[in-house]
Amino acid sequence: MALTREQYLYMAKLAEQAERYEEMVKFMDKLVVTSAEGPELTVEERNLLSVAYKNVIGSLRAAWRIVSSIEQKEESHKNDDDVPLVKDYRSKVESELSEICAGILKNLNDFLIPSASSSDSKVFYLKMKGDYHRYSAEFKVGDERKQAAEDTMVAYKAAQDIAVADLSPTHPIRLGLALNFSVFYFEILNASEKACNMAKQAFEEAISELDTLGEESYKDSTLIMQLLRDNLTLWTSDMQVKFLETSCKSKFFLMNIHLILDNIYLIQNCNEIPKPHSQ
Hints:
The protein is mostly helical. It folds into two domains: about 1-165, 14-3-3 domain (Delta-Endotoxin, domain 1), CATH 1.20.190; about 170-279, 14-3-3 domain (Delta-Endotoxin, domain 1), CATH 1.20.190. It is built from ten helices and no strands. It has helices at about 5-15, 20-35, 45-75, 85-115, 120-140, 140-165, 170-190, 190-210, 215-245, 250-265. Helix 2 (about 20-35) runs parallel beside helix 4, helix 7 (about 170-190) runs antiparallel to helix 8 and helix 7 (about 170-190) runs parallel beside helix 9 (about 215-245). The longest helix has about 35 residues, at about 45-75. InterPro entries: 14-3-3 (IPR000308), 14-3-3_CS (IPR023409), 14-3-3_dom_sf (IPR036815), 14-3-3_domain (IPR023410).
């Protein structure tokens, strides 16, 4: 039974409350199609769309990392009977990842990006497009990974051009873009210096205009600024370790360097080295 746009919105909220995110995605997909004949998505609607897909893709990405880790362990232990089973299961997770990425990218390309009228909505959707191409690049290999990385770059760059021109440095969408774009440089392109420079610039530009930040976006903006700073701390520490590892061949010396850095993390109330933050 076809519902109205308002009813799809209500059902998506209901599914969110019930933590049934796959169904939330389906309701928001139908809302997006329904909106093609009316006004573009409201801020509330686009945020719900993001939440729905983010929860589904988040659990799949976590599952993929776990299964991939188990696969590597089984291969290192030469458990030849189990490795094919794990590989098949990883492929299943990857198929689900591909399906969810394809779903949101179709919505973005067919409906949301063409109908976006304001700068913040254009940046929001282009950033989202970059995010899901980046998620694809995480598990793709060979030419498919290369293409996913190129598509990520194109989307993020288009979003960045609009954000720099039209959004203030403290705008949470612009900050979120800088956060995720820098993670792309670090994790997918292995360009750690570029990642650090981008995160540092976004953080410093926001700091310089912090007094202009309105109450409505203060919490979101300062949270993302904290994530940018956390990533910078993590990445610069990583770079120092890699430099020392390549500059010194002494295993004893390296062991002591790692102990020193571990103590630094503990002092900073960080008991484990986390993955870089992204939205």
